[in-house]
Design a protein that fits this description.
Length: 474
Amino acid sequence: MKSRLVIYLEDEAGNKSNEELMGEIMGLTRAKEEDIFFDRNNTLATADLPDEVDLPELGLAIEASRLVAHAELHRVVKSEKMVSQEEDIKKNVPKTDNNKINFRWNHDCVKFTEALATIDTTGFQPEDVKVFQIDTGWSDHKQLKDYPKYFREPPCETFIDNDVRGPNGEVITAQGKDSLHEFKGIGQEHAHGTSTAATFIGADLTANPLPDFPTPAPLYYREPLNKGLFPHVEFYPLRAAQRVVLNLNGAERSGQDVLEAVQHAIANGAKVITMSMGGEFMRENLKAAAELAYKAGVIFVCAAGNSRLADALLGVVQPAVFKETVGVAGIESKYYKKKNTYRFVPWRNGCDGRNVDISAPAKYVYTAVKHPALGDLYKFGGGTSQATVHVAAAAALWLQQYQGEFEQPGPLAGFFNVNGDKSRRVKAFKWALKESMYVPNYWGRRRQRKNKGILDVKELMDFTPERFYREAPH
């Protein structure tokens, strides 16, 4: 256990150079330079105090300091698991050119950054691609609240029977927050819907590099995301579960909630549905949901699952297992010292198998989270939940660029809408994913069979609906 001093600086600190501030904080706290961090605007600092510091003397020094407006002393307790995770992040998350942690490594891995650099997004209208997120609720986290097209009112909706509603039908239990703030137990984690939504559409709060800035809570950060993968859509979170493992909500009810959520999304103009949840023993309802989305031409992207046991017993979970959906497995970054290189390999704790369509970053994706005590924070999250939103974001970009081809006069319009059946639109996207994915040369046949390949958004944009019409077997 160590002591961490959180220092709220006076306004005049903003007029000092970083070197001056560092010297004054080192003199005040006796902390080492490598144990002191400042936020971007020099309004907040943390200092990990040496064991020999005299706390009463430090208190007097703080009171006398003109630099410090307020200070808080925290005892930071790190378990062996936390220490191991911190070391794993430092080792395996790819670095920038100046050897700092690359907080956007996942963007680079799937070549989202490269793809957007070649596309003029100024003409994209968010209302042209409505994305519905079936998850655990909606959020007031600043990373989402500051995105103007993140909707926390209808058609945002809940499908949980015991959610309390107000006199005008507004949801009180979940309103303004991701429901998992309130729960503890198996299958529950803080702010699941918050973190997955932020990875997709997080607002652009800063254009500056993200420093490694610690908080009083181990493994959490205060520095915001630069922005989400594709913040050019209308985004509607739907609350359809209290737990991300659907079986733990009651299998029969969970399947019905998801089916109702899909029906609601289709009725309200969904083009993409992203669902970072799953389970088993709900086949009738979940299969019906998948078929409805498929026939409506809605790209329904689903998580393959997070469990080595489930992987061994079941493989891919529902609804990702169905051919009508896009099933997404996870990959992780691993550093190989002998080769001095990072490799992207299948995530060892994820489900995979022949029903997977594609893989995307799962472990140590930097994203927003609501901490139960400290509020709006950030962390390196993980799981096929995160992998799913990478593919859903790619689907949204693909549709923003090409959905006009589905309605072109002539043979294309009839091809992609056969008496109201628009399933070929989903087939076209799945074909484009398959044709554009990349398979690292260090993957063996088993990895390729179970994880297929890695999302490549830049290549994906070369495979248009018109090419599917001309080139793909039908």
